[in-house]
Structure formats: structure tokens, C-alpha cells
Amino acid sequence: MLTGILVYFIHAAVVVFGSLIALWVVSLIAKDASLIDIFWGFGFLLVGGVCLTLVPVKTPYLILLAALPIMWGARLTLYLGKRNLGHGEDKRYVSMRKRAEKKGMSETTWRIRTLFTVYFGQGLLIMIVSAPIWVAMATAFKKTETICVVAPCDFPPHIFGQTDIGILAIIGALLWLVGFLFEAIGDAQLTKFLKANKGYDGPIETKPVLDTGLWKYTRHPNYFGNACMWWGIWLVTCQAPWGWATILAPILMTLMLTKVSGRDLLERDMGRRKTYQDYIARTSGFIPRRPKPNA
Known about the structure:
globular
């Protein structure tokens, strides 16, 4: 079993890190390290695709398990690509580069360093968070010797005892669907809001805040949806042997969305605005709930 898991992990890692190196080369040419942001969802798409390619028989359960990260990754990649491409290097990476230059590091040295700190760092996170995929894909079959009594055989030799779609997989898929809709609808509402307020040139303190639609019930419906999807994927993997052991993956994703690179980081600056402070006071920071009445 451990050998099988290792095989799936290595194949997926080679494809993910190989793609990251290729993208890093493009970022050097374009002088835009923020291209890595678009890769986040695509990396999970690659893991799902590679693992589905490796399985000996593409059963309904395995197709479902692979389809969840593939569909999420495809949507997120298209969304971020449309939003980010053509706008130059993101200000976060510009600030990182300027801080490095102040410490005496050349731009060339900084961009080389991004391969290991930014690009490979994201690749490592992708492989850790996607553990439910490559573990369940590798353990969904129990290999045994099989004897074909009547030719031709209707099943591959040496393969018997597959994992089927059960109650955990159904619950997990439904939770994933809820999360997918939250993220997709939330992103669409945010895009519409930003477009409508693109020409705002008033004081930053009174800049409009999106507090309608899903954003009325949670300040981050896209982050909440993302967390739901990965808890849903984990539940699907619990249908397979040892899928439950990958529980650290959805925990890590949730922590990143709320404490590391998601909500808290985003609100560090936005929280200084009076309009956003009022929004924080009445609106849940993550799990949707009815907003508090205006003071």
C-alpha cells in the first residue's frame, strides 16, 4: 500500500514541480512573479489528472474523486487568469522585490530566489493539501490474484475489491457542491461590484464595501466555499482505505484561508477603513450567518 501511495505522489509531484519550473521561466521573461497566483488551482487540477491517469480501472468513485479538484482547479484558473493577466506584476510581489533590493539583493537574484521560496513553496503546499487525492487514488483498489474461469475476462487480472460510491462520498460531493457554488457565485458578485465601482475616486475611508448577495452573510464567501470543497473532498476520500488519515489537508487549507494568506492578511489593510470596520462589526468573518443589525 505504501509503495502505491509513493508512486502516485511521485508522479504527481514531478508533473506539478515540472510545470512550476516552466512557469517560473515564463515569469523571468515577463518579469512577473505573480503568475504563480494563477497556478494555485491549476496545480490541483494536475494532481487529479495525473492520479486518474495512473489508476488501473477508472471506476465511478475514482472519476468522482478526480473530477472534484479538476473542476475546481479549472474554474479558479480561468477566473484568476482573466482577472490578473495584463495588469502587470501584483503589488505584493513588487513590495517583496523592493524590500529585497533595500537589503542589497539584485532583482536578478531575487527572481532566482522566487523559484525556491515562492514557486516551490506553493508546489509543496499543493502536494500536502492534495494528499486526500493521491492517497485515496492509490488505495481505492485492493490487489489480489484473480482467476478467469470463463474467457474472455470481464475484469483486469490481479485487480479485485474496488471502492464504490457510498454515503460518505455522496455527503462529501454535496458539501463540495455547496462550496463550489459559494466560491463561484461570490467571485462573480465581487467581479460585478468592482466593475461598478471602478471609477470611485473619493476618500479611501469611505470607499464602498460589497455587503450584498452572499457577502451580506459572510465577509469571505469565496474562502468559505473553498474550505467546504476541501472538507468535501476529504469526506469522499474517507470512503477509501486510509482516506481518513489525510485530515490534516483540509485543516491546513482552512488555516491558510483564515489565518495565513486569506482573510486575516486581506483585512489587515482593509480593516483600517471606516466603512469596512462597520462591515466587520455586523458580518461574519467566515461561516455564513444572518448579519447583525446596524448600530
